[in-house]
From TrEMBL:
Protein name in the entry: Thiamine diphosphokinase
GO terms assigned for molecular function: ATP binding; kinase activity; thiamine binding; thiamine diphosphokinase activity
EC numbers on record: 2.7.6.2
Species the sequence originates in: Rhizobium metallidurans
SUPFAM superfamilies listed in its UniProt record: Thiamin pyrophosphokinase, catalytic domain
Sequence ranges assigned to domain Thiamin pyrophosphokinase thiamin-binding in this UniProt record: 142-205
UniProt keyword Transferase, yes or no: yes
GO terms, biological process: thiamine diphosphate biosynthetic process; thiamine metabolic process
SMART domains per UniProt: TPK_B1_binding
EC top class, as a word: transferase
Keywords, in A-Z order: ATP-binding, Kinase, Nucleotide-binding, Transferase
CDD domains membership: TPK (cd07995)
InterPro entries to which the protein is assigned, alphabetical: Thi_PPkinase, Thiamin_PyroPKinase_B1-bd, TPK, TPK_catalytic, TPK_catalytic_sf
Length: 216
């Protein structure tokens, strides 16, 4: 993997799956506050640790005492995750894997990660959000292909009105579809294998559960 790929370790849930390990293999790592705990499970040593450290227990600090730290006050204008992403971009990141960005105890943080990922995609960055069992990829004007197994579940929540939406190789395909903002039409679909998405205009996110093969 290119040295311009960075995995940002965030504070949400992270399950050690084959897809997760394959995604982060060979990447560089930056930890955001309590997200450093995932470094233990992944057996990696991040090159930087940032945050206000309000969710970092003493034993974690001791375990990674050799990692360079960049502390920030609790009263700051950005989340620890956004600060970590900024540090990765400053180091030349073109692809970002936000590990621990989904689920967890803070739904406000999880939602912000999804919105932030779309803005990063619009800035030209390749972004994947993952919990190990669930993955998300921004969908903006253009095309993407998500490598999903047959019967893998996915949805396409939209952050705006969508125009010219195509979903191919799915149980419920769409062609040149207009999705009004707030519509649930693109929630709960089933992959027939790798799924191709194209969009003329709008902002959305593809949320997938590749290990859920229930097909419902």
């Amino acid at each position: 993997m290119s040295q311009s790929t960075f995995t940002i370790l965030l504070g949400g849930e992270l399950h050690m799956t084959e897809r997760l390990r394959a995604a982060v293999s060979g990447s560089r790592f930056i930890a955001a506050d309590g997200g450093m705990r995932h470094a233990l499970a992944l057996d990696v040593r991040p090159e930087l640790w940032v945050g206000d450290f309000d969710s970092t227990p003493d034993d974690l600090t001791a375990a990674f005492s050799d990692i360079p730290r960049k502390p920030y006050p609790a009263a700051k204008a950005a989340t620890d995750g956004e600060i970590a992403v900024s540090e990765a971009i400053a180091r030349g990141a073109t692809r970002l894997i936000l590990a621990g960005a989904l689920a967890g105890d803070r739904s406000d943080h999880a939602l912000q990660h999804l919105i932030y990922a779309v803005s990063l995609a619009e800035a030209g960055l390749d972004v994947l959000l993952t919990s190990g069992t669930e993955e998300a990829v921004p969908l903006i004007a253009g095309s993407i292909t998500l490598d999903l197994p047959k019967n893998g579940l996915f949805s396409v929540p939209a952050f705006s009105e969508l125009n010219g939406l195509f979903i191919e190789n799915a149980r419920y395909p769409l062609s040149d579809f207009h999705l009004p903002f707030g519509s649930s039409r693109t929630i709960s679909n089933v992959a027939e294998g790798p799924v191709r998405f194209s969009l003329e205009s709008g902002r959305a996110i593809v949320l997938a559960r590749p290990y859920d093969l229930s097909g419902v």
